[in-house]
Amino acid sequence: MQIEYMGLKDLSGSLIVIEGIKGAAYDEILEITLQSGEKRTGRIIELTRDFAVAQVFDGTQGISLTNTRTRLTGAPLQMPLSKEILGRTFDGIGRPIDDLGPVYAEKYMDINGKPMNPVSREYPRSFIQTGISAIDGLATLIKGQKLPIFSGNGMPHDNLAVQIASQACIAEDAGKNFAIVFGAMGVKHDVANYFTTAFEHSGALSRSVMFLNTSSDPVVERILTPRCALTAAEYLAFEHDMHVLVILTDITSYCEALREISSSKQEIPSRKGYPGYLYSDLASLYERAGMIKGSKGSITQIPILTMPNDDITHPIPDLTGYITEGQIVLDRALSQKNIYPPVSVLPSLSRLMKDGIGEKYTVAEHPEISNQLFSSYAKVQEIRALASVIGEDELSDTDKLYMKFGTEFEQKLIGQGRNENRTIKQTIQIGWDLLRILPKTELDRLSPEILSRMFDSETTDTQE
């Protein structure tokens, strides 16, 4: 016999407090019945000996302290899952919003997931091709990696997210058995419509699962959206052996929602008002990426976050950088030059890149070409600083070649079309062509064999 509890002790924002509740569990789902007969759903987020605090998904408007009835369901929030979720669009808590009807479930899974045993994890190796040279060539994404994109307000990270979703594939099997799970949190309605339309037009929707939480949806749903997305990814990866790329945007909106709910619970704030458990909460999302020994599937994550005031030391990018395996940083100065995507190469890195590129995975010369491009572009910044003091006319001939290299590098390697899908071979060829601008003596990161081939082919091209 299920017990219904009549009345509430207190109500604040999206939270309700129930007194005298027995046998409740953390994260358990509540069924809330209003005086009018309307039913809503809540989730227990705090328990004491005498009280339970619950979040109400659809808001607390119209809820009465005296006539509201609550009932424990005995289970956490679970998602109905089947392979039919591919090509479907859901709201922030996994309810279909594409007018295609409910999902006929093969399985129900707890959205909080289960932590991967570190011993059972397999080391990420294989290369994922995004078709974007600045990422593929210089901060390569590896299957099973978590590689965030640090952006800022007004920068084209939404376009970049759609382009990656449309173009990404596992290079080793030409994209077979590959799926995209896309989770948007706190986005405006026009942005949500852009995502939906862009996925449909690109053809990516058929292999994608979309979770859209708009800015007008309850803040509570924003906390659950990435968990629903990752649960869908785990199902496809470990039940159907698919390689899944999860794109989550915007993690900053998620953290703002976490701060708002923490404030409602009157918790003691930490840096910038965020809760002290922000690190562990973000880790509970990011660490759901990876590969498991004995399983053919994999989960790769690209979380996208907008840095408040473009501050990379802000708690959100700061903590994200500690948990993840590198970062792609977008640069406002490049964006203002109309260079797309405006990837700032020098602060961007992929810590797993060295183990997923080279002869077995991409191109044999990839590691050396990448190192030389980094080194040469770093020197460009020094020479540009010098030129701003003494003037470009006073630079040496070699320094002027570096200035030319820097301009060409930004326009031809970093810059590309919004629908341009480059192979890794095309990216490496652009790198070859750019390095030929510089004198042979400046290319100290390349082996003699590669130098010989580079300049021999240049001589052959000239003769022809």
Automatic annotation (TrEMBL):
One of its GO terms (molecular function) is proton-transporting ATP synthase activity, rotational mechanism. Signal peptide: none annotated. GO terms for biological process: proton motive force-driven plasma membrane ATP synthesis. Residues 355-452 form the ATP synthase A/B type C-terminal domain. Residues 131-350 form the ATPase F1/V1/A1 complex alpha/beta subunit nucleotide-binding domain. Gene3D superfamilies: 3.40.50.12240. Keywords: ATP synthesis, Hydrogen ion transport, Ion transport, Transport. SUPFAM superfamilies: P-loop containing nucleoside triphosphate hydrolases. Pfam families: ATP-synt_ab, ATP-synt_ab_N, ATP-synt_VA_C. Residues 12-65 form the ATPase F1/V1/A1 complex alpha/beta subunit N-terminal domain. Produces ATP from ADP in the presence of a proton gradient across the membrane. The V-type beta chain is a regulatory subunit. Belongs to the ATPase alpha/beta chains family. This is V-type ATP synthase beta chain. It comes from Ructibacterium gallinarum.
